[in-house]
């Protein structure tokens, strides 16, 4: 199988009380695993595509056979987005941006608080299932964006630095309908050291 579920870099309970253990376990072992399983199944008869990275696959959906485009979009996107999502969370790091990302955010938004407000509004405004993102656009400018379903910023030519999953499966057990409370809590588990690393990898 070309793609596999990455291990979490922490225990399922590590993000308590902000994200509960059972949500993390189901999210990782059922939802993310489901995207990986479906992606592998879709590529079973396509040895050439199995050689590609998931990012290569979803960055250029038009190059895929028509019959594969939707399934790779949804499940490749789901695999790629969640692989990033687990890494950008931790309870150990600083609660504010660091390094070059901190400079970029301050320059673009004026302050971390203004950025946080705008990102939170974007996350709250996603209708139904989707994601909020901090990305670099093709000019290297730092931007807030959102995507529906499991679409990824790389499908729009952006490079994601930070992403927030606002599908109900990410929060419903603990927060029920209170997405704004989940978003407010999530800021306590952002791994800003990793966000900085994501940025430096693009330089
Ligand atoms: Mn999810």
Question: Mind explaining what this structure looks like?
Answer:
The chain is 50% helix and 10% strand. It is mostly helical. The protein has 2 domains: 21-87, Fe,Mn superoxide dismutase (SOD) domain (Helix Hairpins), CATH 1.10.287.990; 99-200, minor pseudopilin epsh fold, CATH 3.55.40.20. A 3-stranded antiparallel β-sheet has the order 2-1-3, with helices on both faces. Bound molecules: manganese (II) ion.
Helix content: 40-55%
**How many distinct helices?**
9
Q: Write out the strand line-up for the largest beta sheet, numbering strands in chain order.
A: 2-1-3
CATH homolog superfamily of the largest domain: Iron/manganese superoxide dismutase, C-terminal domain
Mind telling me which CATH architecture of the largest domain this is?
3-Layer(bab) Sandwich
Give descriptors for this structure.
three-stranded antiparallel beta sheet, about 200 residues, minor pseudopilin epsh fold, single chain, about 50% helix, 3 strands, globular, binds manganese (II) ion, about 10% strand, mainly alpha, 9 helices, Helix Hairpins
Question: Outline of this structure?
Answer:
This protein has 203 residues and is mainly α. It has helices spanning 21-42, 47-50, 54-59, 66-87, 99-109, 112-125, 172-175, 179-186, 192-201, and strands at residues 130-136, 142-148, 159-165. The chain folds into 2 domains: 21-87, Orthogonal Bundle (Helix Hairpins), CATH 1.10.287; 99-200, Iron/manganese superoxide dismutase, C-terminal domain (minor pseudopilin epsh fold, 3-Layer(bab) Sandwich), CATH 3.55.40.20.
